[in-house]
Amino acid sequence: xxFLPLSFGxxxxxxxxxxxxxIWWLLRLxxxxxxxxxxxxxxxxxxxxxxxxxxxKSPWWLTLLRLVLAALVILALADPVVNxxxxxxxxxxxxxxxxxxxxxxxxxxxxxxxTAERLIExxxxxxxPVILALTAxxxxxxxxxxxADSALQRLNAAEPRPVPTDRPAIYARVADALVELPxxxxxxxxxxxxxxxxxxxxxxxxxxxxxxxLWIEPDSLSFVALADSANExxxxxxxxxxxxxQNAPRQVVAYAxxxxxxxxxxxxxxxxxxxxxxxxxxxxxxxxxxxxASIGIDGESHAGALRLLDENARRRRVGLIAQSEADGAQPLxxxxxxxxxxxGPYADLVEPSHPELTEAIPELxxxxxxxxxxxxxxxxxxxxxxxxxxxxxAGGTLIRFAGPRMAAAEHDEELMPVRLRGGERSLGGAxxxxxxxxxxxxxxNGPFSDLSPPREVTVSRQVLAEPSADIVERTWASxxxxxxxxxxxxxxxxxxxxxxxxxxxxxxxxxxxxxxVEMLRRIVQLSRNQGNLAxxxxxxxxxxxxxxxxxxxxxxxxxxxxxxxxxPSDDAPVTLANPPGYYGSExxxxxxxxxxxxxxxxxxxxxxxxxxxxxxxxxxDESRPLKGPLILAALAxxxxxxxxxxxxxxxxxxxxxxxxxxxxxxxxxxxxLPLMVPDRALAQSDEPQPGDxxxxxxxxxxxxxxxxxxxxxxxxxxxxxxxxxSQFLAEKTALEPGEPAGVDIATDELSFYPLIxxxxxxxxxxxxxxxIARIDAYMQQGGTVLFDTRDQYxxxxxxxxxxxxxTQRLRDILSGxxxxxxxxxxxxxxxxxxxYILDEFPGRYxxxxxxxxxxxxxxxxxxxxxxxxxxxxxxxxxGNDLAxxxxxxxxxxxxxxxxxxDPMQRVYAYRAGVNIMMYMLTGNYKSDQVxxxxxxxxxxx
Length: 941
What we know:
CATH superfamily of the largest domain: Domain of unknown function DUF4159
Strand content: 15-25%
InterPro entries: Aerotolerance_reg_N (IPR024163), Class_I_gatase-like (IPR029062), Double_TM_dom (IPR011933), DUF4159 (IPR025297)
Keywords: Membrane, Transmembrane, Transmembrane helix
Radius of gyration: 47 Å
Organism: Chelativorans petroleitrophicus
Largest sheet: 7 strands, mixed
Oligomer: single chain
CATH topology of the largest domain: Rossmann fold
Number of helices: 22
Protein name: DUF4159 domain-containing protein
Number of domains: 5
Pfam family, one: DUF4159
């Protein structure tokens, strides 16, 4: 049975309760005056007989009331106290109090202060000096000894700090002070959490001459703190931790707030029995996740329950552009494959829906990316170049990768960090070494300075930078021979960065290394419009001023006088000089959070103590004196007794109470508004749309297209030549092409045709930039354009010295295209064996080579009939006037003579056309003929 703890300050007064019977007897001898009532029928007799009557005794209830009143007065004088506190036996020469006031003490700080106050009050009664030390303060704090009043003043001025405790430094100070107080009592008021250096700190403190130790710790460690957060591709994850050893399951609500403090998302984090770490997920859109400024936990009022987010926690939007894509069956050859894999976990990747650069770049810029990655992009159209440069100067980061197209293109200094060495179009201008070059140590002036160079990475090809006075400053990574591998340069508020190798593993093994992922991640972290403040400050050793600090209760407050500027780094500790919070200014801030992602909250185990130990828990002083309430109760009974005496004496008249009942009810008819019936969506019209008939006709049968130049005679020859080649294909092969298709490259859809024949004429109008961009996109998507200058006997494509007007016009057209390196068709190329075995590709003229994309990475081995390579050349160039040799009239006779007049030259021209079409439609199938003997053997043939 539990009894209410009760004590009396003057227990001798309780003997007065024995006098209650005497009081009862006195009350019966002197009853109060009774009330008199006049009976109307006996009014006359009342006038005759007048005598005073005294009742025999007072009412019992009045006597009981007065006895209770007397008992309350006696109890009040005995000074009763409910829940009297136990005084700590402090028998030493003094009292030393060591109080943890770190971040975990904030939720029950008042309870801890109340506990320390009781210890100081007990020391006051014993006249003992007090040492008071707080473990989250600076080691140079004044710790005493103080008298009790001074100690109480310092305790009441103390407050919890949003930083970890520093027991080693503070315990050393207390140990030195205890030398002057031998035999003192020590009170250790802990927060219950273990910290680095505890073992040595306790050993030094407890090694002093102590009389006793009072060990006070929390009843339980029930708080939850935030350890980490991650802005993942599809969600935002929050990691929470709680002290180890908590067996009860628990759920908390974590919420995300924006810069105005508005709650915009939340999630439930569930801890299972015995779990000390749990994760919650916020499934919100990318744009909303980038508005997160802080993460908090409901119901937790300490610094560990608030985690701040800066630009490092926000996912960047990165645009990707490539001039060519590999076949879907060979993703590893895609120039964007390794870039997607590297940036996918750290950024929101967007790609344009249009292949043309004139539409792709504006589409990306509209989405306001932090960075744009260009994989082997050569020449940029003038219409989009200025907008791209303006975006860079406003803070964007342009990341470029080299490749054959970049090597062959004319370089724009504004879009390159360094000047590049040019090369011949047929060779690509790439560097070749006898042995692959490794990567050397990263320069200290770049963002990769703290990374270890990848020793396993080698580079076999690169684009070279021209030597200049600032080449060293702009080099972020280099090879063993000193040539740059990665260069970067500022452009206004932004920057341009160039990898001097391709983004796929053809020129180097860098894209398949882990260092490539880290390099791209760091570059993207630099790529916000105002720049990454933390990285810039770290690079320049800049110190950031405190901007907003996290208080001990988990709220953002202005910085205090103790806060000092912070030098951002991954291992910057949280101290009183650099408390958790935001550092920087309104232009940009860096988050300095309390807990590390891998933090573990281990309970503090009590060390071995060689002196007597008393254990206790934090608690308020719950003792309640009852003297005041008892006196008030006695006064209330005294007032009630006075009223009763007046009522019995007839001094008060009864008043009749009239009952007044009012009933009011208001009937309200709530009219339901008719439900709004949503309008039904109109069905899409089944009527044919404009252009459907042309699309159906173009895709129902294979058709060879030719460019309408605007010169009627030339367009007529082109049409007759394509008709003649189609007729020859139908007679000699299984392909039955449809009617020739004349296309306007500025308006017509080009993707329907596998091959477009383009005769060049200097008198034809120059195509617009938009038309050239559409041809460029057509070539990138797998189509092939056959350019025919028809000038073999004036000046061919590869001729030296003066060039013909047609060749000059072709050069003007190609200057707006991203043309790969070219070479004459090799003797082991698939084109020479696609259908007929050919060693040249004549037309109306002969002698000019057929130029195709150079197969730089292809092989030709003795056991394979043709050179192996990937993809089909997007461009062919000749000067032999192929359409003139193919052209036939309405009767099927040749339209134009060959030069020289050789009947077999026309036959070879047709065969060249057949090989070109077979190559276009079947690709490199001939390169797999090496397997034919094995297949025939298995078939038993």
